[in-house]
Amino acid sequence: MLLTKRISFKYEQNNQWVLEDISLTLAAGKVTGLIGANGSGKSTLFMLLLGILKPNTGEVCWDGQPLSYHKEALYQLRQNVSIVFQDPDQQIFYTDIRSDIAFALRNLGMDEEEVLRRVDNALTLVDAQHFADQPIQYLSYGQKKRVAIAGALVLDAPCILLDEPTAGLDPLGRQQIIEILQRIVAEGKQVVISSHDIDLIYQVCDEVSVLHKGRLLTSGDTQQVFLQTELIKQAGLVQPWLVRLHLEKELPLYRRE
Ligand code: ADP
């Protein structure tokens, strides 16, 4: 389980606190949404959860232990916490899709038969088998996003962070990502999604944390958080479409199964 205990952070070149006193428990087997206006500190928080940045005060903990920031410990953490960046080009290095997804496994010296089995599983999970033999430059943006997700899934890390998984996608591409997210969740992984796509967050997240100017405004059950109209406004956000229909048209509130 990944959590933060009262972390605060500022960048060296900037004397202002970017995050202040953030305590978050990201429960295993749950999907947590991280939302906030631009500049509220979401990406910085992801870098702290990955151990790429170190908090000035407080602790980030994995499995009950505070992170240590030496190379081997971070290498170990990488096998437990994976990230899918917003821009797939930041994550894909090979022109051959299977080689790209296999990279981290081969780097670990894994048996080749196991590498191929895992790559196949990851490709199936993201529905990419039918284009996996094309060169990467022939893929659409949405297909590249799916390859990047497969690259993060292949290590079978119990925790996956996704930064803006639906940004830049058309409605079909977005729907495909939602289905992939649902499959990842069904595997019992801990998933954290940072997104401006409020309707996506509403649809797939059990819990949501709202950042505002580097502070945690609230954290809790997704529906309960989004029903707080004033708080969502204060954070510079809008309520999901289904919550607005409920509040404005008095329709019953859709509940996720
Ligand atoms: P978000 O992801 O919510 O848009 P960020 O974490 O990117 O927020 O940014 C939070 C704040 O930190 C912003 O004020 C941003 O200008 C500042 N910031 C982000 N990256 C850096 C950096 N490398 N150096 C200095 N300030 C930064």
UniProtKB/TrEMBL annotation:
GO cellular component, one term: ATP-binding cassette (ABC) transporter complex
Keyword Nucleotide-binding: yes
Keywords associated with the record: ATP-binding, Cell membrane, Membrane, Nucleotide-binding, Translocase, Transport
Gene3D superfamilies recorded: P-loop containing nucleotide triphosphate hydrolases
Protein family per UniProt: Belongs to the ABC transporter superfamily.
Purpose of the protein: Part of an ABC transporter complex. Responsible for energy coupling to the transport system.
Name of the protein: ABC transporter ATP-binding protein
